Amino acid sequence: MRKLVYYVASTLDGFIAAPDGSYDFFPLEPDVTAHLGAAYPQTIPTFAHPQFGIEQPTGRFDAVVMGRATYDPALTAGITSPYAHLRQYVVSRSLPPSTDPAVEIVAGDPVAFVRDLKGRAGGDIWLCGGGDLAGQLLPEIDELIVKLHPIVAGSGVPLVRRDFDPHRFTLAETTPFDSGLIILRYLTR
Questions:
Q1: How many angstroms separate the CA atoms of 86 and 65, rounded?
Q2: Which residues are CB-neighbours of 182 under 8 A, at least 6 positions away?
Q3: CB within 8 A of 97, min separation 6: which ones?
Q4: Most buried by CB count within 10 Å: which residue of 30, 98, 101, 111?
Q5: Cβ(150)–Cβ(181) under 8 Å?
Q6: pLDDT tens-digit profile of 8-59?
Q7: What does the alpha-carbon distance between residue 29 and residue 24 come to, in Å, rounded to a whole number?
Q8: What is the DSSP string of 122-165?
Q9: Facing residues of 183 across strands?
Q10: Measured at the alpha carbon of residue 87, what is the angle toward residues 82 and 93, in degrees to the nearest 5?
């Protein structure tokens, strides 16, 4: 069965974006950038592949699920298919159906949709963001990969937004970098 993997950048205090949804305060350090291009090339937007030297991204993911706020920056830039190398699903009750055949707008229950998606044949599914969608999908998350930046933001979009309901994960791997970032990989218990 396919896994839902929440792969996301976070501050030390648990924020994945600023209060306005921007995330440009996360630095792209050279040691981390090289690693991400090699280890997680499918999580890099298609338009950025040339800057990372990626010709054909390969890896574990063949689909990406994201919320509307995560999709909006691409739309604002005129990019309707930010991850053209993956099957793209945008969870939104307010967006009209996509005019781009590579992007499917999911207006229904995201939990039911992801359960169905996990039951289909294919590679793992990348949960790209954001915090509200991660909160709804928390029981379905099989793996959590956090790029933990040595930054304290104070406020913003939390890693997961939902009512108090603790979910425990087991640490499977840590990858530290000289720049201070640590990639933490957790599995569900």
A1: 10
A2: 148, 174, 175, 176
A3: 105
A4: 98
A5: yes
A6: 999 999 999 999 999 999 998 888 988 988 899 999 999 999 988 888 888 8
A7: 13
A8: SSEEEEEE-HHHHHHHGGG--EEEEEE-S---SSSEESS-SSS-
A9: 147, 175
A10: 75
pTM above 0.90, yes or no: yes
Number of neighbours of residue 13 by Cβ within 10 angstroms: 13
User: Do residues 127 and 7 touch, judged by C-beta distance below 8 A?
Assistant: yes
* Number of neighbouring beta carbons within 10 Å of residue 148: 18
Task: Kindly state the tokens that stand for 61.
Answer: 């993911």
Q: How far apart are CA 29 and CA 166, in angstroms?
A: 32
As a dihedral over the C-alpha atoms of residue 119, residue 133, residue 75, residue 128, rounded to 10 degrees, the angle is -60
C-alpha–C-alpha distance, residues 133 and 6, integer Å: 10
Looking at the predicted structure, is the pLDDT value of residue 61 above 80?
Answer: yes
Backbone angles phi, psi at 126, to 5 degrees: -90, 120
Reported as type and span, the H/E element at residue 76 is helix 68-76
Residue ranges of domains in the chain, CATH in brackets: 4-18+28-42+59-188 (3.40.430.10)
pLDDT (tens digit per residue) in 120-177: 999 999 999 889 999 999 999 999 999 999 999 999 999 999 999 999 999 999 999 9
